[in-house]
Specification:
By secondary structure, this protein is of the alpha/beta class. It has a single domain, classed as Rossmann fold (3-Layer(aba) Sandwich). Helix content is about 50%, strand content about 15%. Strands 3-2-1-4-5-6-7 form a 7-stranded parallel sheet, sandwiched between helices. Strand 4, helix 4 and strand 5 (about 135-140) form a beta-alpha-beta unit. The chain is globular and about 45 Å long. Bound molecules: NADP nicotinamide-adenine-dinucleotide phosphate. NADP nicotinamide-adenine-dinucleotide phosphate binds near residues 14 and 41.
């Protein structure tokens, strides 16, 4: 650990498990104080906070359904109230509600669009104010290879993640001269609870399409986020960093 991140504060949405939990851990290891956001799993979020605190990281859990504008802005407000600043926002919270286009229910479309895309807009809009005041910020949006390549059965999810990439680029242009970078990571198939639903055949088929012939680890995504959050990395903005074993190239 260098002291590049000393004194910094991060909000990681959807950090109670999976990729978000690992991002929280990786940023914590760099000395960043962490707000662990969750929507439903309080015990899991509190366990992440306890692990971070055991490792010497200052951390707190805040419940907020970030698909709701009021809750998203309350999350950012509570984080800045508690720690007095906000340096890093990681928009990671996400869900899937897969289904073929012809059978997709309106609610599955809206739930995924709101949770995976609108949430990033709501959190960024709230976080931009303190970051502009500080003239410093690092925003990392967790998109997906599905938003780049598309995926049958995921019109809602692919649209949300592609939208997140557009949001990233537009916001990066707006905020570039305020010392704020906005980037996305686009994970491919990563081993988490989300991919636990895959059958062994689906898993094998997925791996066979990936140039490195393996699913990724949550730590692969977390290291990419730490790179984009690095205060010494001020000249990379509006980019999509693919963490997918070469899948989308
Ligand atoms: P996961 O294990 O299902 O965890 C999702 C997290 O999001 C949980 O902490 C959950 O908290 C939180 N969450 C869900 N809805 C929320 C809401 N409305 N407000 C606040 N938090 C909410 O997912 P994951 O696999 O780690 O995925 C994390 C991100 O990476 C997602 O954006 C996903 O699309 C993206 N991604 C994943 C993969 C992959 O292979 N796993 C690939 C590409 C992209 P609660 O349980 O407390 O609600």
């Amino acid at each position: 650990m260098s002291d590049a991140f000393a004194g910094q504060v991060a909000v990681v949405t959807g950090a109670s498990r999976g990729i978000g939990r690992e991002i929280a851990r990786a940023l914590g290891q760099e000395g960043v104080r962490i707000v662990v956001n969750y929507a439903h799993q309080q015990a899991a979020a509190e366990a992440v906070v306890a692990q971070l605190q055991e490792a010497g990281t200052e951390a707190m859990a805040i419940r907020a359904d970030v698909s709701q504008p009021g809750e998203a802005s309350a999350l950012i407000h509570a984080a800045t109230e508690r720690f007095g600043r906000l340096d890093i926002l990681v928009n990671n919270a996400g869900i899937t509600r897969d289904g073929l286009l012809l059978r997709m229910k309106d609610e599955d479309w809206y739930d995924v669009l709101h949770t995976d895309l609108s949430s990033a807009f709501f959190c960024l809009r709230a976080a931009a104010r303190p970051m502009i005041r500080q003239r410093y910020g690092r925003v990392i949006n967790v998109a997906s290879v599905a938003g780049v390549m598309g995926n049958a059965g995921q019109t809602n999810y692919a649209a949300a993640k592609a939208g997140m990439i557009g949001l990233t680029k537009a916001a990066a242009r707006e905020l570039a001269d305020r010392g704020i970078t906005v980037n996305a990571v686009a994970p491919g198939f990563i081993e988490t609870e989300m991919t636990e639903e895959l059958t062994p055949e689906q898993r094998e088929r997925a791996a066979s399409q990936i140039p490195v012939r393996a699913l990724g680890k949550v730590s692969d995504v977390a290291r990419a986020v730490v790179f984009l959050a690095d205060p010494q990395q001020a000249y990379v903005t509006g980019q999509v960093l693919h963490v997918d074993g070469g899948l989308a190239m």
